[in-house]
Structure formats: C-alpha cells, structure tokens
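Example record

One chain of 150 residues, shown exactly as stored in the release files.
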Amino acid sequence: MTKYLTSEGFEKLKKELDYLKTVKRQEVSEQIRFTAAFGDLKENAAYDAAKEEQGFLEGRIAELEKALDQVKILKKTGSGTVQIGSIVMVSTNHKKDKFQIVEPEEADIEKHKISYKSPLGEMLLGKKRGASVQIEAPDGKIDYKIVEIA
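Predicted structure tokens for this chain:
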C-alpha cells in the first residue's frame, strides 16, 4: 500500500531507520553480550529483557523498511480540494488554525500535522474552500469552516 509522505516526513523515517540500524542495533547487541555473561540464561531476566528489546527493534526496522519502500513523496497538485499533503486554514468560533493533512506516521499535533485518518482529517479530505465540517469532540460539536487550502 502506497504511503504518501512529505519530503520532511520521508527524511525523518530514513533518519530513524539509519539510527536503529547503525546505533541502536549495536547497543542492543552489546547489551545481550553483557547480560549473557551473568550466567544461566534460563534464569537471566536482564538477558531476556535484552532479547525482547532486540525483537522490538528488528520489528521496527522491518516496519520502516517496508514503509520506505512504499513511499510516494507528495507534490502539490493545486486541485482546490483538501488532500494528503494539503495545508488547510480553518476557522472556528472566530479562531483560525492551520493544519497539514498527513499520513498517520507523520502526524504531530505540536507541528500542526494531523492524520488524514483523524476525525478532523477525515472530514476535511475532499472538501473545497468555503466548505464547513462538524466534528464530535468530548466537549460537544465543533464546526470548522475551510478558509484556505495550500
């Protein structure tokens, strides 16, 4: 399945993969060697924890490699509708917010990047400037109006 990432998101995943393969893999390997020296491996909790960490690490490496093989870098199309990669200015209750619609792996609310699978992201996809959407939030319904799409 194709993953649509910004060039920034693609680079972030590549850096994480490089770090895991070159630095973290070596650290875990050393940890396994160190804890194996403690004696009987059947009753060695530190060794078991290190092997478990290795399993998680190798799983994440495989996940990143698969994702990076399926990446398509987003380019602006100027279609006038909200799509993955769009930067959307919305207004609600006289307040404006700007979000970029991204893949879940790239979502970061502090950087105003929301997943297209989030409630707001789902509602915005395919909409045009001037459209309104309503989201059910814990505090009640929130109405958003699309002010601008870039």
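Notes: Residues 7-36 form the longest helix (30 residues).
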